[in-house]
Structure prediction request, 447 residues.
Amino acid sequence: MINNDFEKINRFILSNDNRYGIFIIIIVSASIFLDVWDLTSLSFVLTFFKSYFSSASGFLIGISVASANIGAIAGSFLSPYMTESLGRRRMLLINMVIFIISAIVISISNNIIYVIIFRIIMGFSIGNDVVTGFTYIYEYTSEKQRSSLYPLWAYAFSGVALLAILTVYILYYILPHYYLWRSVFIIAALFALVILTLRYKLLETPLWLYKHGRNDQLEYVLENVYKKHIEIKSRFYYKPNFYDMIRMFKNNEYLMLFTLSLNGIVGFIGWGFSFYVTYMLFELHVYSFESILAIDALIYGFGLLGAILSRFLFKMYGSYRLSVTSSFIAAFCIMLLLLAFFGYINLIAVIPLTILIIFFNYLGPMAYNAVLNNNIDPMYRSQANGWNYMFNKIVEAISGLSAGIIIIEIGDVYNTLMLFIIIMIFSVMALISGRYLKSDFQSSESL
Prediction:
């Protein structure tokens, strides 16, 4: 299906640095910021959110937490078709408009049902945007520039988490506590508005323009971005369809299985554990809210350290060994945490074990997006990203909902037990599926 000119354009992009590379990465990856902001900031104010909707059941609280992921599942599923039909740039603009409107409505809602509905809509825009964003970035960056993208997801999670902690800490002393949960959505809407304005300057990707026969625009983009001219002789007309979501798996089944295994680890640790860390520490009745925020900062500070180290360790050991080893160590730490909750280890170990779980999660499996995009057939990149992010959101919706119900209704012990079993299963899956790709990871990721 890929012709010579498509390969020619793809090789050109891989071998030539985009002079707008940093601008593109920052502006397009803003959806990652919004996704992470929703996860971290809401987790830090979950106690006040639950207090405001005190009459709501644990089930409704869990649904309100997971609802953004439910919307993101639909957004990520439809994104490949929408972004292939309408274009990367247009979808990046549409998604921000939807997000802004939804975030504003949530911030003024007094009914948890309205919160759930518009968090689903907001999640749709995030899911659609993350898939489109990763596709856009990897269709515009060279192999050299991609070296900085390997820990992008981990950078975003840890950096935004630290920013959210600082923001919530300041707002905690400025605003009445029942306004805290509203403020995080207002801030997100303002940030999205800035991003929407900046995204108007983006150009469509060369590969999308070629796939839709727009050679004149393609030549303009290449000359504007790279200051070089390449001759394109053929015209190619690609008609997107949902069958491509299935066709993509041909010759990519082991890559997808390995990626989705890492994805599952990140999703369950993220929404089934780290999202509720603040709430769990608060329920221990040992620390003040200010102390818990300081502990959160320490936890995500180590997450940032893991992200920084991952870029260098990846070059030494490759994706397979780094990801799988980190996953099993994180699972072992979860087992120790379970023993602490059972009383076999002093509860003082909860904090250092939590730090280690987050550190190893960010060190290895968090790079699953880079693993996928560095190795996938470029013709099916949007479809692969769609499956990848949709699976991530299914996992996060399940883990966020189940953890919310289990922690609130039953207790921390049973949620930790469930988490340990699931992380071990995904780690074994990554261990097995990655063996078929180990040599490919070492050779194809020339970063």
Observations:
- The radius of gyration is 22 Å.
- The domain at 4-227+241-435 is CATH 1.20.1250.20 (Growth Hormone; Chain: A;).
- The chain has one domain: 4-227+241-435.
